[in-house]
Amino acid sequence: MKYSLVPLICAIAVLAGCAKESEVQCTTAAKETWQSEQSFQDALIAKGFVIDQFKVTPGNCYEIYGKNPQQEKVEIYFNPVDAAVVKEEKK
Fold this sequence. Notes:
By secondary structure, this protein is of the alpha+beta class. The chain contains two helices and four strands. The protein has a four-stranded antiparallel sheet, covered by helices on one side. The longest helix has 16 residues, at 6-21. The radius of gyration is 18 Å and the shape is globular. The chain starts with 5 loop residues before the first helix and ends with a strand.
């Protein structure tokens, strides 16, 4: 029995495209214009956030996993320049 590789190749291409599209892009500004990681986290904590994990993403975001001031579990992507929320997911 012969099988065509075309459907498999198309499926892989679609999945690869989805992975790139889902990457959140927060800013294209130079890193010199970003808030420092520590002062950014300190400001969030002062607002009532609980930060379990903090990281800088490939899309130039500050991302946190933790709790918002309402104590809901969240994953939030912030613009590191102006602290604007770019994407938020409640868990």
